[in-house]
Amino acid sequence: MISLELLNRAAVWAAELTEEERERARKGIIEKTYGKGVYVCHQGDRFNAWAGVFTGLVKVATVSDRGKQVSLAGFTNGAWFGEGSLIKGEMRRYDIVALRDSRLMLMDAGTFAWLLDNSVGFNRYLVRQFNERLGQFIGQVENDRMLDAAGRVARTLGSLFNPRTNPGVGQQLAITQEEVGLLSGLSRQVTNQSLKLLEGRGKLTVGRGGIAIRDWRDLMGSNA
Question: What CATH topology corresponds to 147-220?
Answer without folding.
Answer: Arc Repressor Mutant, subunit A (1.10.10)
